[in-house]
Amino acid sequence: MFKILVVEDDRELNRAVCSYLDQNGYKTVGCLSAGEAYDAMYGGTIFDMIVSDIMMPGIDGFEFAENVREQDQEIPILFMTARDDLTSKQRGFKAGIDDYMVKPINLDELLLRIGALLRRAKIARSHRLEIGKLLLDADERSAYLDGEEISLTVREFNLLYKLLSYPRKTFTRSQLMDEFWDGDTSSGLRTVDVYMTRLRNKFSSCHDFEIVTVHGLGYKAVLR
User: Fold this and answer.
1) d(CA 150, CA 203)
2) Is the C-alpha dihedral spanning 178, 181, 182, 184 positive or negative?
3) How far apart, in whole angstroms, are the C-alpha atoms of residue 128 and residue 112?
4) Angle between the N-to-C axes of helices 173-180 and 190-202, in degrees from 0 to 180, rounded to the nearest 10
5) How far apart are CA 13 and CA 30, in angstroms?
6) What is the maximal distance between C-alpha atoms in the chain?
7) 194-209: string of b/e by CB count within 10 Å (b at 16+)?
8) Taking every annotated instance into account, which residue ranges of this chain make up the domain Response regulatory (predicted)?
């Protein structure tokens, strides 16, 4: 069971968030300040994620996130705050947070975001991505479908791993070119189409995902 630390000085909101997450399969610890959160974190409990406010007495959320990041580079941090200005968002992400929600919080949306962040954190820690009968091992740069290795080039593997790490997220051809072609200006954007066709052919027998063309934009992976 995933353990989530909720740091929020509004007692009612803290209680509501913790109660909702507990009802949906998580184990939560609620703290009213960063000081209480430090005590919880360094008292022996290992948390999988942090949900934190910004405006709190004493140490604010920015400083709290920075301090956490000095000790742990991987734990997901989500800010939920009344501050909706771009400067606060920029400062939050520079401090190392992973997501940002503006109050009033929709608890159903919070649950969805937590699930996505925890899934990505698991992928990052294990360097392995499992979807149905498909296994992608980032350390080996290897793909196995139902136990049988599928031969992929490094670029093919990287493209597939990227798409499957963010299912339903659309990546433009330009985004993929910038990340995986290392500034190779001799290749046009249609080169991405060639690689997607190769991946579709190589995984035509895999029924656990589909690479979908988003017309006028690029591609996304859809899990079945």
Assistant:
1) 8
2) negative
3) 22
4) 80
5) 10
6) 58
7) ebbeebeebbeebeeb
8) 3-118
pLDDT at 46 (0 to 100) = 85
Q: Which residue has the tokens 């919070």?
A: 110
Is residue 5 within 8 Å of 35, Cβ to Cβ?
A: no
Considering the entire predicted model, what is its pTM? 0.62
Residue-wise pLDDT tens digits, 59-110: 999 999 999 999 888 899 999 999 999 999 999 999 999 999 999 999 999 9
User: Helices in 75-217 by DSSP H: which ranges?
Assistant: 86-95, 107-126, 154-165, 173-180, 190-202
Cα dist from 15 to 9, 36, 84, 136, 195, whole Å: 10, 15, 23, 39, 49
Helices 61-71 & 86-95 angle (0-180, nearest 10): 20
Query: Do 211 and 156 touch, CB atoms closer than 8 A?
Result: no
